[in-house]
Prior knowledge:
Elements: H1 4-15, H2 18-25, H3 29-43, E1 48-51, E2 54-57, H4 59-83, E3 90-95, H5 97-102, H6 104-114, E4 119-124, H7 127-135, E5 141-144, E6 153-167, E7 187-190, H8 196-206, E8 217-220, H9 224-232, E9 237-241, H10 242-251, E10 255-256, E11 264-273, H11 279-290, E12 299-300
Parallel strand pairs: 3-4, 3-5, 7-8, 7-9
Antiparallel strand pairs: 1-2, 5-11, 6-9, 6-10, 6-11, 6-12
InterPro entries: LysR_HTH_N, LysR_subst-bd, WH-like_DNA-bd_sf, WH_DNA-bd_sf
Pfam family, one: HTH_1
Family: Belongs to the LysR transcriptional regulatory family.
Amino acid sequence: MLDFRVETFLTVCRTMNFTRAAEELHITQPAVSHHIHTLEEEYGAKLFQYQGKQLFLTESGKLFFQTAAAMYHDTLHLKEAIRQQESRRRLCFGATMTIGEYVMADAVSRLLKWDPEIQIRMLTANTHELLKLLDQGELEFAIVEGYFDKEEYDSLVYCDQRYIPVCAPDHQFAKPVSRLEDLLGERLMVREPGSGTRNVLERALEARNLSIRSFRHITELGNLNIIKILTCAGTGITFLYQTAVQEELDAGKLVEIPLDDCALSHEFTFIWRKGSVFASYYQEIFRRMKGAGSDGNRMENR
Length: 302
């Protein structure tokens, strides 16, 4: 269904290099150039431009990409839907690590009760990686905590979560603490760049003209459980969603750091490619995961 020239365009968008795109598609570089030139003639606009040696999408190219990516995603979904007519339904989606580990168990359980024959595959990664997989058609939808381009994805708010600073009960602070800035002398345990959990903290700090680097000591770790273990051991402080540390809070292994100027919360968001013809299907899956009927769910075309 998808025009081969559109596939070429999407491959160039992914690689931003005509030669690498040709290698991935197993065609010649002149053929790639010809496909792009044909699309530009058909739509009457330049899709790419060079700035020095770097290739960029034009504004027209960005608009074309939004529609082409949705078409590509829908084509893959349609092929899978047709293939499943004579077999069990499959569902492949993504979740950021905090959501996957601490929120999705109930949601997956609801899906399995709704359709005991469904085959589910959930991938966990940071928001940046999930958006990439979604654009490539590897995922049908994703539930993310990080920020995304609201012009490229439709979304539904899955839930809102408190985002809190925590430490060990016997943690010794460098100075009395009542404001966010008072924590800058502490060792901050934080996720890697690109993590949605980290992005929330970065936004809160930016609002105060601060950054992660404003902390005196920083330890970056790609594993949430290691961050919690080290924080419980008193090696530093961290900021995490309350749902991710509720067990430790209940057991007295961690305590919330009270701050007068920092009441943070953040939405977990269910997203899919904007303009998808399968939007109603994704909304139905959303309702099933939430355990709600068709009424009372808020749709946001962001």
